[in-house]
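Field reference: sequence -> structure
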Amino acid sequence: MSDSAQKDTSEQAEFRSYCRSWLKDNHPGEPPVRLPLTPLEIMTQEQLGYLQAWQKSAYDAGLIGCDYPQEVGGGGRSDCQRVANEEMIAAKTPYLPNVIGMGMAAPTVFYHGQEKVKQELLPRLFSGEDIWCQGFSEPEAGSDLASVQTFAEKKGDKWIINGHKVWTSLAHFAEWMIILLRTDKSHKYDGLSYFVVPIRSALGKGVTVRPLIKITGETGFNEVIFEDLEVDDSFRLDELGKGWQVAMTTLLHERGAGELQTPRSGGLKSKATHATNTANLMELAKQTPKDGKLASDDVLLRDKIMQQVIREEGLRQNQRRLRVPALQDHPMRLPLQNKLLGSEIAQDTAAIAVEIEGASASLYLGDENAPVGGEWPMAYMNSYGMTIAAGTSEIQRNILGERVLGMSKSK
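Structure field:
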């Protein structure tokens, strides 16, 4: 029995038993198509269709949106989403495709949207029928998010949007976007407002989505161009000029801090690829020849691997601490620390794997001679996106230093 299961309430224990039984009988099995490393790299309709069907099945069974009220499509439970997530991970189910919707859009819409908007949008978000994306970064406003210039002009009860968003994951499949817009050019922070906007239905009618090809050859990122897109004022979240505050709700959940005090939507990750952890890294070392021996016999590589094992275990224990309120000396410290370290540990683990594979790491997916199907080099190339997403590692360190440790701002 896991540590979490031992601390379950009677409601959670009953729900855990239900989840375990349902997953045993309804596991979707091996996918009929190759899935990318994470849902943010979904490229084809075949990949998306398989994953959407899985999310819809899990939602209909009550495993997604558990902690949200029933009026907005949730399960009306209390702290049971964690249970469902743990059981999906244990069952090694596929990941869920609507990660931006569940992890960022759902809590933001729930806490800042009008009731009618919540009831209209959240059920299809939880079910995965509507994919969501995030419109924050712009060509001239990445790390300095408050400098966004995509502008919304008020005309009657409508807003007319013009501008350019970039690095927009899943926009090529998204029905909806959460978007930070400038509504007043005279104030940097107070001139920002937050909206949800339909983009799929507006393609060619005010919205253009252009895929960006990454170093991996995948098209997870996109740029999105707005030209006189008209949206109703009801799709504005919270008050005019409060966009920065609403964006902080989104970022808290993207970085993990929001999980401490808010409902959660569903398993943002479950079945992992081979290229994710040190257990698989050790297996690679045991199977890979190096200088007439096995890579696992190289004392320097063994030391590097064990350092990663230690870091990975430390991260796991920090994640356990998140569930103990008495250990939360600052609401942002552990979530931000976990985001920072988790992304860097994953990158360093993949880098060691590439070192072990040597020249074979140049072989791409699909090459029959590529070790582990070419997944480790793919994981290494993709890892750079994770150290940038939700704020770069440098920004995370600044936040931890200034807001958690109370250090003075760097010049």
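Note: The chain has a mean pLDDT of 88.
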